[in-house]
């Protein structure tokens, strides 16, 4: 692993060069530096199913997934690197009308060939296989993990919540569209959101 390369470049290797400029810019933060990127956008739709509503108390404890539904929800994303850590740090803030802002924090690490793992609280993580699609970046769920010290234990949470697929597609050199959904084999779509974002600075 090269600490001089962005986390997602480490995972994608030569495929990194096939990403559109706006997608590269989104993920260009280098580990062991003090870099910060601000993005602003609007989620056209944020929703979860009636079945998924039963899971919200558990996902809220883990600091994962948005517990509200809404349309045209303003969102602010701050990505950071840190001088003492290898990861790509996220802070997503959702501004739902009439509610306290919902903040979703996580950190993403390079964990394999074309693979990253995004961790929330308590070492709970989800592995993604990365691929380039028409200049955009696609994330395909490869299962959940629980990291305890040096151990990484598989968790069968896909059987409960479903499998995640997400993608970011370029709109211009400064804007991209994104979409995420989680689909359960029996209960269908459990969570989804989609919107557009611009890099502010």
Structure overview:
The chain has 201 residues and is mainly beta. It is 13% helix and 52% strand. The protein contains 5 helices and 11 strands. The protein has helices spanning 7-12, 21-26, 50-53, 56-61, 158-161; strands spanning 36-48, 70-80, 88-94, 102-112, 115-119, 124-133, 136-148, 151-155, 163-170, 175-184, 188-199. It has a 10-stranded antiparallel barrel. A hairpin with a 7-residue loop joins β2 (70-80) and β3. The protein is globular and about 45 Å long.
Number of domains: 1
The CATH architecture can be named as Beta Barrel
Share in β-strands: over 45%
Described by strand count, sense and barrel closure, the largest sheet is: 10 strands, antiparallel, barrel
Which sequence of SSEs, written as H and E, runs from N to C? HHEHHEEEEEEEHEEE
Q: Low-confidence parts, pLDDT < 50 over ≥5 residues?
A: none
Number of helices: 5
CATH class division: Mainly Beta
Here the CATH topology equals Lipocalin
The CATH superfamily title:
Calycin beta-barrel core domain
Distance between the termini: 27 Å
Number of strands: 11
Order the strands across the largest sheet as they lie in space: 1-2-3-4-5-6-7-9-10-11
- Classify the helix fraction into a percent range: 10-25%
Structural class: mainly beta
How many whole angstroms does the radius of gyration measure?
16 Å
General shape: globular
Please, what is the average pLDDT? 94
């Amino acid at each position: 692993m090269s600490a001089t390369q962005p986390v997602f470049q480490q995972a994608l290797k030569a495929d990194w060069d096939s990403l559109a400029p706006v997608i590269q810019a989104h993920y260009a933060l280098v580990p062991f530096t003090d870099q910060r990127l601000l993005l602003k956008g609007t989620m056209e739709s944020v929703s979860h199913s009636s079945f998924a509503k039963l899971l919200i108390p558990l996902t809220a404890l883990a600091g994962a997934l948005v517990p509200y539904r809404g349309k045209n929800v303003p969102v602010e994303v701050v990505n950071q690197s840190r001088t003492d850590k290898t990861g790509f740090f996220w802070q997503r803030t959702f501004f739902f009308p009439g509610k306290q802002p919902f903040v979703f924090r996580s950190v993403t690490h390079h964990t394999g060939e074309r693979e990253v793992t995004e961790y929330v609280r308590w070492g709970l993580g989800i592995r993604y296989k990365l691929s380039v699609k028409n200049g955009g970046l696609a994330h395909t769920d490869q299962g959940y993990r629980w990291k305890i010290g040096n151990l990484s234990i598989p968790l069968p949470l896909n059987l409960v919540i479903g499998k995640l697929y997400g993608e970011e597609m370029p709109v211009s050199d400064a804007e991209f569209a994104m979409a995420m959904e989680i689909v359960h084999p029996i209960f269908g779509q459990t969570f989804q959101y989609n919107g557009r974002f611009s890099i502010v600075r």
